[in-house]
Amino acid sequence: MSSYLPTLKQLQYLVALKEQGHFGKAAEACFVTQSTLSAGIRELESLIGVTLVERTRRVVRFTALGDRIVEKAHRVLREAEELAAIAEASGKPLTGELRMSVIPTIAPFLLPRMLPRLRADRPELKLYLREETSQAAIESLRHGNVDCVLLALPFPMGELDSEILFEDRLYVAFPQDDPTNPPEWIKPGMIDESKLLLLEDGHCLKDHALAACNRPDLRASATMMGTSLHTLIQMVDNGLGVTMIPEMAIAGGILDHTRITARPLKSDRSARDIALVWRRNSPREKEFHMLAEILRDAAAKSCRLPEAA
């Protein structure tokens, strides 16, 4: 075995530079100076005898070999983190650090209910949260930047494991008195495609809403304008159209102080599944199942509307 092996720190610097595309930003992400990061990457290049990064005054460009080594570096760093996790998991479960990504259509509605329960049940757990769109969250999980993800399914995940926490029904939200005396349930055929407002690309809720309606004309005609559910609600409240929102958002009070009426959508796929997702064969798998149970219990008490609603 060669005695000249890259260090984990050098690989971390290289991965950070690839993700940030800028030496200064990469150094900030690694909590080191720019000169330290730059020197570490040069040492790595000298060690393996190849150029990984082409440097100019304005552009950081990775060579083809550099891109390949970054992919390998992601795997090495992930395996190193899992080595530490094995030792940590052998002690008391759900203690120490846990990094979780949460998508924007879940975070503001579930986290306020979940976090007090976690603090009470697991005071030794240090939970670090980041809000990301679904694809970004899955990439963070694959690259080892986070340990687990709170996600809405269906969504293509590849070789990852998950546990479904609960079902989150979809509702149609429309301005007051439009329509007058709305029915108890809204069928997809009743939605005017010219008035439908959806989240912009990158949010899986948009795909879940369109799939629930199963109307190709909606995909072609829907006005996808909202950057967040709160933005969509403001647009609907001002009479600009209708939208679809999840039950947990309504239970979380998103319609409070608005004149919006919401009715459940009636279709074969009128709900999304909220799930906890982690890397397959993770040494913390048992902890994730325990965490899923805590989240499921917290959601059962706060994320569902009364049946009569």
TrEMBL record:
<keyword id="KW-0805">Transcription regulation</keyword>
<dbReference type="InterPro" id="IPR000847">
    <property type="entry name" value="LysR_HTH_N"/>
</dbReference>
<keyword id="KW-0238">DNA-binding</keyword>
<dbReference type="Pfam" id="PF03466">
    <property type="entry name" value="LysR_substrate"/>
</dbReference>
<feature type="domain" description="HTH lysR-type">
    <location>
        <begin position="6"/>
        <end position="63"/>
    </location>
</feature>
<comment type="similarity">
    <text>Belongs to the LysR transcriptional regulatory family.</text>
</comment>
<dbReference type="InterPro" id="IPR005119">
    <property type="entry name" value="LysR_subst-bd"/>
</dbReference>
<protein>
    <submittedName>
        <fullName>LysR family transcriptional regulator</fullName>
    </submittedName>
</protein>
<dbReference type="Pfam" id="PF00126">
    <property type="entry name" value="HTH_1"/>
</dbReference>
<dbReference type="GO" id="GO:0032993">
    <property type="term" value="C:protein-DNA complex"/>
</dbReference>
<dbReference type="InterPro" id="IPR036390">
    <property type="entry name" value="WH_DNA-bd_sf"/>
</dbReference>
<keyword id="KW-0804">Transcription</keyword>
<dbReference type="GO" id="GO:0003677">
    <property type="term" value="F:DNA binding"/>
</dbReference>
<dbReference type="InterPro" id="IPR036388">
    <property type="entry name" value="WH-like_DNA-bd_sf"/>
</dbReference>
<dbReference type="GO" id="GO:0003700">
    <property type="term" value="F:DNA-binding transcription factor activity"/>
</dbReference>
